[in-house]
Amino acid sequence: MSEHPLRAIPSVERLVREAETRPALARYRRDRMVEAARTVLAESRVRVSAGSAPPAIAALLDAVAARLEIPAQGVRARVINATGVGLHTNLGRAQLPEAAIEAIVQAARHPSALELDLARGQRGDRDAVVRDDLCRLTGAEDALVVNNNAAAVLLALTTIASGREAVVSRGELVEIGGSFRMPDVMAVSGARLREVGTTNRTHADDYRRAIGPETGVLLKVHPSNFRMLGFTASVSLTELAAIGRAAGVPVVDDLGSGALVDLTAFGLPREPVVRERVAAGADLVTFSGDKLLGGPQAGIVVGRQKLVRRLAAHPLRRALRPDKLTLAALAATLEIYRDAPDPTLMLPTLRWLTRPLVDLDAVGRLVAPLLEAKLGEGHHVRLVQSEAEVGSGAVPARSIESRALAVEHPMHTADAIAGRFRRGAPPVLGRIHEGRFLLDLRGVHRAEDLIPEQL
Asked: What is the pTM of this model?
């Protein structure tokens, strides 16, 4: 009488002993291997009970190794961004330039003069590593850095307007990704929201009438991820700054994305440039480090020295300050803007935005037949026109001409095809548009990125 198939599955103890002989697995604690072995064997018993053949010990060991590797995924796992969204929030936004990556490695590996003035031998200021370049690039009197733009706005409002009114247009009370709402940030800061105008039209007199003894700040907010069209009116920053100066009320410009260069020079839609906002009269301008600037996640505040120093002295600032790795990466990124004749060659974000279509066509023509062969019988891969977007609220409602590979199969849905690519090693992320699965090529520089070993 033949042995029952389940008896062919080894015990947990035997599988762990075998695992301990593998150098790649021996680096794990025994209790971790026991946990992984139990899970793998339980899954194997279910499959064998359903009629599958008992797995070989080598296959079980591979499964244990894969299980142990799962916690190492997430932020450390590489994925291929073929979504057509350059600054994809879910994928970590801006890719850092090589100089910033090297700066992070050096700051992590060695002690650094983060808060030490080497010339005087005394305690220094961690913002000093980026202040001069931020002021030079934006025309501001002073600058400081916190951990993201929401923190920058929170710090500014808490310092300037806590317990007082923050006047803002109804048309600028935005909600961005993750249900993040501007009124909520204002409430946490202690500032009292004073709405002016209507959803679609706000005029200068709306601000003037709202200003009184309780007014702490006039706040202007970039619309970020939407654009209002039709019967609309808004007050320019220049005019709002003049109103603020006349009333002795500071003006804070929450720019959100914050470009350091004029994108129209590359044939792209217009996006506010930080230097222009400072020149327009804003007392403080806040913006992100990991969007159009192309650096690490950070919230940057530039503006009048008197106000910036008030923010720097506020107790909340310590809770919001960035670490040495962020500052090292930001400093290296700013140096590219300061020194490089053509920043688009060194900054992945600007390279993504300005990449010529002829490059995308070349990659697409090369990859299409190879990918079709890899996917197997019935799959069709065609090079098609596409539209990409910057993402993360930058250049909202404006697309960028691109190219994509459309992957189709008569028996498989676009969702099923997308799932197969997500399960690849590394995962490849595309998008579904009008019932087709598309792999946008704007961020793909190597053919092999779209043809992972495991697909």
From this structure: 0.84
